[in-house]
Here is the input.
Amino acid sequence: MAVYRDKARANPPMATKQEPPVLPAAEGCDLILRQLSRVGKRINSLATQQLIFSTLTVLLGAAAIVMLAAFFATPELFLVTVAIATLATLIALPWVIVKAVNRFASIPVTAHLTDDRAELRGRLITLVGLRDQANRHRLWPYLVEDTLLKVPEFEPARIERRRLSPAFYAFVSACLIALLAGVSAHVARQRQLAAQAQMAAAMDIDPSQVQPSNGSHGAPAEIVGNAQQLRDLAQRLQGEARTLPQDHHNSLVNRARDLASSLQNRLTGADDNPENKVKMRLAQTLDNSNPEAPPLQQPGYSNPTSDQQLADSNKQPGPLGSGNANQTSGPETNVPNDSNSMSGAPTKMQAPANPNTPMSQVNAPGQNSTQSGDSDQQSRQRTGNGGGGASHGGGTDPDSLMGPPDALVRHGTDNFEIPVDARLQAHSPIHDGQPYNPPKVKVGLSSHQYADQPLVRTTVPANDRETIRRVFER
Amino acid sequence: MNQTLTEIPTVADFARTFRRIQAEVHKVIVGHEQAVEELLIALFAGGHVLIEGVPGTGKTMLVKALGQALNLSFNRIQFTVDLMPADITGTRVILSSEDGRREFSFNPGPVFCHILLADEINRATPKTQSALLEAMAELQVTVSGTTYPLPPPFFVMATLNPIEMEGTYPLPEAQLDRFFFKVHLNYPDEGELVRIISTTTGAELHTVEPLFDASEAAARIEALKQLVREVIVGPEVEQYAARVIRATVPETSKFVPKKDGLARDPAINRYVNFGSSPRGGQALMLGAKVTALLDGRANVAFEDIERVAYAALGHRLTLNYAAEADGVDSAHLVQKVVHSVRDSRHG
Here is the structure.
């Protein structure tokens, strides 16, 4: 092994002022490699940090954006945001992983980096590359000693000053954004609950404002009303549905919108019980809006407070109303499909999700709309009251306020659902510039009717008000 | 490796000697720092130099000053169109001995020296120019079947006049390739010109002092040349030099069976007919070794390769007419080659 002898000490090969350490070449080489190893550990530590923090940053950022969009964006914007966030995540995740993995440095790569950063002019890569062939080079001891002089120049702290990867700061930023999103979502959620708690539950709608489904596959809204109104509405919707153009594009858009809405509900927790349907009560049409019209509400029960709240809520420029299917599924709406249930109780109608489905197909088996119409005709003839199904409530038969039980049995099974595409209009077609205010009808009770057996007027649970509101906004 | 480093010239010795020679030369040569340095790099790398410059820029003065500083034997041949090969290599003549017998005796030509100045080499015929080929490449001369070795160190400095091309014989590519470096001597700037005028027209004439004794000068130079070859080159640097050479070869070259690693820069493919030969790679690496020693290192760095790239490769690129039409020179192309390979190294 070649080492510097005394003569060499007296005549150092480098024209430097600093005396090189007296070390054998092999020992000096080991010392240099150990130093290089420490530099490598530092670089690899940063690479590991970058791998972890970058991956978490991407995932957390995407989740925060999706959550924010779920709370604050419309379904369309939410869908676009989710698509972009997913795509960006799929692109960014492999990219950041590959970039971080590429930062891991082996000993030769570390030597290369150290040479560049400490301006060692290839000393380290030469040492690392030829350490196994050291004996073949006569200037090897000189190279080792020359590099030993430079050891202070490639201390780990000088080659890589950072102990913490810059990706950590990006991760902290993503955490802050996520925290902000969480707080915003919580606040929004609390506001929703507070608003729902204050809003009235009942909602009357004008039958003329109900439109057939345009292909939406969302949860259908449940509409209650008397049999004649529901029948007329069903026939009208059926006729309008036939005239609707079969626009495949609109159908896809509606499906996408429904999907986005459903996903938003799940993320925001707004739709805790998706089985509950929004129930809306049909009001009298404009033509029949005189005070003497048949009652829309349960006979024998009138809640002025609720009516006032209902009127107030309808006047609001915001959502037309909100309700909770849990509460509306009380005695007023969940009427059993038997003859007894038709005694003054509104008939429940659920619009089919598929607009092409005829109304007769969603009726009870063995019944069709024609039969129902016939029965109703017979009923009107027997009672001598031609005011329509709603007028049956003013009959004198305490057992069947809506006519003879045999004529109304069939109406009791008229259950179908229709999707409602309704929104509050600033300029109502009914009253100029005024929101629609459903007529209030007061009907005197029959002498055979038990006044102490009213069906309880319920309010929409707070949890479902947001759902109803979104339905109307849609 | 049982010998100590002091038995050979040290790295510091080399750098010190190099700088002293430079200083001596610059006593009479004003400016041209890069040309002088490249000249000395080629000398210690064991190559020969082709100096190109307009008349009056100090080509002959430079060579003479170098010979005086090194205290080596120096000859000058003025190449003309009627110069014969024997005028360079020497010839056999009939001499009478003391006993009256006549016999052929070899009369060495001017090529038998340490430093040879071939002035305006492009004015001689190709036959005469080729007489230098064997001497430059193999350091020997063969006359009438007898080979005569040249005394080391043998260093040829040929000058080339880029103007007055009428009646000249441009050097063929094969002969150009035998020159280690091509050094360009440009016109001096105003400050240098003032110094030239003042130092050469005054009463006091500057002279070059020899650095070595005549008896040991050749041995010292040879020892330093040997030290150059001892410089360590890492595998990555060797690969880098090979890539640089490979990147000078256009992809359209029909002499390259494997196209991988050829020129990435479109300018090379457009303007270069033939790239550098492997001899260019040798020049690149040896020149880089000298620059490493000058920097006090025993290893070659990437920067050393890039530093001598143009001097080593510029005259080895054969450009086409498109380059001439577009005014593209080899310096520009070598720079592009180096950048492209450097980018790939960092990438």
The beta strands of chain A are 204-205, 222-225, 279-282, 347-350. The two ends of chain A are 87 Å apart (CA to CA).
